[in-house]
Amino acid sequence: MSHEHPDHEHSELGEMELRVRALETVLAQKGYIDPAALDLLIDTYQTKIGPRNGARVVARAWADPAFREWLLRDATTAIASLGYSGRQGEHMVVLENSPQRHHMVVCTLCSCYPWPVLGLPPTWYKSAPYRSRAVKDPRGVLADFGVTLPEATEIRVVDSIAEVRYLVLPMRPARTEDFSEEQLAEWVTRDSMIGTGVPREPAR
Amino acid sequence: MSYLSHADLGGRPNAERVQPEPEHEIFHAGWEARALAVTLAMGATGSWNIDTSRAARETLPDYARLSYYQIWIAALEKLLAERQLALPDELAAGRALHPSVPVARVLKAPDVAAALAKGSPTERPGVAPARFQLGDRVCTRRQRVSHHTRLPGYAHGKQGVIESLHGAHVFADSHAQGLGEQPQWLYRVAFSGVELWGADAAPGTSVAFDAWESYLEPLAE
Fold it and tell me: Domain map of chain A by residue range?
């Protein structure tokens, strides 16, 4: 996870390129994998499945009280109604933030993460510092993200270690009453749906 | 103890900052994307399950020194060799040298979208009634086990409260060992920071995680 100096890192990357290419070649020759399927898997997570999906879920919940109620009661079905379902999101639970309680999601044992709504996890989510510190020092971790919450707000860390996947429903920002769902979605950051951030005005 | 997980990091001392990252940064080298895809495609052959692959990753002796996708590749190579699907001499040569071993399925490009949309649900109906109900006070098991488990090290012998019932799910511990699904009720259990960390606990913090029924004992009234 850390590298001694740039030269070492460079040769290591070259080594990994070759190693993965060799692996892929052998597995394709043996008929276990279809290289075109691999291309499609990569394209899917680079262009189709990512945190904008989750942002649409959150914006809908902010705009539509009935959807919010459904989302908190049966997240898997409510999220599927917007077209997001499947691998690493088979069993979804949504946790709603409030002035009393802020949720932050981690997987201390590996990297469990709700792929259909957030895509692949960022490097920091899979890193030793986050996985070690989030459960014990969540306010310190929030500070690394530039976030400070009131002392009166309980920080509830959810360690996502079985096959249930968690999405945080952040608090709707003030003065957004007139916003369309599309405008609301622009305020929803990936980190605000993990609980390491809060919604913010999009950069213009 | 014959089984040691290097992945159980919760609560371990770590003074490093968390490094935030922009949303669009998914892969940091071309091989990382291929590593993801080849791992998913081999998982789809049905030669092992997700819990077996987690066990293969967390027991890599050099886990702490490897990057995330290096861990995935090392574990994949281990699983392939154990099952004779691909052997180290073949990976070194970059070509197949031994006959193929039959696999249950091959994920073809036209089936990718449907396979991802379907996923692999783990909830199983028809298991005995739940032992615990909302609000029940429970204690997590104290003993360490010598196999893959999903009870974090920091949460052994701790008292908490049941706050959600998730239905019965495939039991990761037995599934990882090739002992079948053996579904059990899964609960979300909440713990105070003080219960987990004692005097070190940060004020106003708590932790919840999902625990299978056999991780939990009722707390005497």
Answer: 6-47, 50-194
pTM: 0.95
Which among A17, A36, A120 is the nearest to B30, CB-wise?
Answer: A17
**What is d(CA B67, CA A136) in angstroms, rounded to the nearest whole number?**
23
Contact B195, B159 (CB under 8 A): yes
Length of chain A as a residue count: 204
pLDDT tens-digit readout, B90-141: 999 999 999 999 999 999 999 999 999 999 999 999 789 999 999 999 999 9
Work out the burial of residue B135: count CB atoms within 10 Å of its CB; fewer than 13 is exposed, 13-18 middle, 19 or more buried. Answer: exposed
The catalytic residue among A11, A81, A98, A110 is A110
Within 8 A of B35 by CB-CB distance, chain A residues are 16, 20
Whether domain B30-118 has CATH 1.10.472.20: the reply is: yes
pLDDT in tens, A45-70: 999 999 999 999 999 999 999 999 99
Strand B205-212 relative to strand B159-169, pairing:
unpaired
The DSSP letter of residue B123 is B
In angstroms, how far is the first alpha carbon of chain A from the final one? 35
Q: Count of CB atoms within 10 A of residue A201's CB?
A: 9
- Give the residue from A135, A196, A52 showing the smallest Cα distance to B193: A135
Answer CATH for A50-194 from 3.90.330.10, 3.30.70.20, 3.20.20.80, 1.25.40.10: 3.90.330.10
